[in-house]
């Protein structure tokens, strides 16, 4: 009987993990929906999602990083960009322009959440709809 009784810290921890997953999910949704329209809102959504991921890692006492098929390509892209900065004539300006690559972050955070297929499809649909709406 005592094995089925959960302590207050276990209940609080599980609720916090639920809230961090929700914060990650809705942060990514806000970022996906607002990337073409508002850099401020998109950045706020990304910070919220990143904060949720960091808190979740602290609560679980491990850095949980799931590898995806995109990781190799993103790392290759960033490595080529760093080589470009190293061989650039104006290194500081090139390094400063690398800040524009923050839009890669929603995809990485989306892969790190415990999201269902339905949630992943919804986030992808929102991102595509926002891209189409901004192009129109």
Strand content: under 5%
In sequence order, what are the helices and strands, one letter per element?
A: HHHHHH
Secondary-structure-derived class:
mainly alpha
Query: How many helical elements?
Result: 6
Q: Give the radius of gyration.
A: 18 Å
**Strands, count:** 0
Helix content: over 70%
Low-confidence stretches: none
| Average pLDDT, all residues | 76
Question: Judging from the principal axes of the Cα atoms, what is the shape?
Answer: globular
Largest sheet: none
Distance between the termini: 62 Å
Question: What's this, in brief?
Answer:
With 136 residues, this protein is mainly α. The protein has helices at 8-34, 39-60, 71-86, 91-97, 105-112, 117-135.
Plain-language structure description:
With 136 residues, the chain is mainly α. Helices cover 73% and strands 0% of the residues. The chain is built from 6 helices and no strands. The chain has helices at residues 8-34, 39-60, 71-86, 91-97, 105-112, 117-135. Helix 1 (8-34) runs antiparallel to helix 5 and helix 2 (39-60) runs parallel beside helix 5. The chain is globular. The relative contact order is 0.15.
């Amino acid at each position: 009987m005592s094995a089925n009784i959960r302590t207050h810290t276990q209940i609080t921890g599980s609720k916090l993990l639920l809230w961090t997953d929700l914060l990650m999910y809705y942060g990514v949704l806000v970022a996906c929906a607002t990337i073409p329209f508002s850099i401020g809102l998109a950045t706020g959504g990304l910070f919220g999602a990143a904060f949720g991921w960091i808190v979740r890692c602290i609560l679980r006492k491990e850095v949980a990083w799931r590898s995806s098929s995109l990781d190799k390509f993103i790392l290759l892209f960033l490595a080529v960009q760093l080589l470009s900065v190293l061989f650039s004539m104006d290194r500081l300006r090139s390094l400063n322009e690398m800040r524009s690559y923050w839009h890669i972050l929603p995809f990485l955070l989306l892969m790190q959440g415990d999201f269902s297929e339905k949630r992943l499809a919804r986030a992808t649909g929102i991102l595509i709809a926002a891209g189409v709406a901004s192009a129109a």
